[in-house]
Amino acid sequence: MPRNSNNSTKRKMDLGEDLSSLFGKRSKTTSSNSSVNRSRSKAMEEAPTSFNQKKCIAWFRQYSPASSPDTIGPEGVEMFCRDLDVEPENIALLVLSWKMGAKQMGYFTLQEWLLGLTDLQCDSLAKLQGKLNHLHSLLLDSSHFKSIYRYAFDFSRDKDQRSLDIETAKAMLGLLLGRQWSLLNSFFQFLDQSRYRVLNKDQWCNVLEFSRAVDVDLKNYDVDGAWPVMLDEFVEWLKVNRGESNIQ
Fold this sequence. Notes:
Blueprint: H1 31-46, H2 53-61, E1 71-72, H3 74-84, H4 91-100, E2 108-109, H5 110-120, H6 125-129, H7 132-137, H8 142-156, E3 164-165, H9 166-177, H10 184-193, E4 198-199, H11 201-213, H12 229-245
Antiparallel strand pairs: 1-2, 3-4
Helix pairs in contact: 2-5, 4-5, 8-9, 8-11
């Protein structure tokens, strides 16, 4: 996740011991007991490893300081990312924060931690490591993606500000739209030379809608549509630049 603090750690994670459930062989007893044992064994094999809240809380405490045991701060989040073997800029961390309903970037409260990890049924590092692909897959669902995108605005802004500063906005847009909006770099160039120094939430949300609705050639852009002035100006700027460079 983009953060204002220095969180660019790329160390390898020690996966620790394998937490996979190990089931013993069934003993040979009477046919009645054998049948019961087979049923129990089958149930154990089919049932997922149970979630243990106490274990999850103990895991949380590994990252929260003694002075504030119910809050993981920036140093703890960095350590958590290092152990999980993901960079803080990995979008999976943003999706995980969304799952938790985390209010502030760089911080997890115990309540947020339990909300997200209970939902994911993860009470250990190994279990969460196994859920990373699932977290990425949530981005493929358009409704989930829209919810995560909207969440990212409030999550990454300074809490005493209603808007998102341009540099943070660009970092988050790169994380969320970098692989799916071919006009993103052009939009960044527009922002760099524009009068805009912050994005408000309406502008932020409309950037997503614009990226989904407007073709790269801009032919289906409705000049009379209800787009924010910023996006009207972006379209005008892009048309001028394309004309100067003879790009069709």
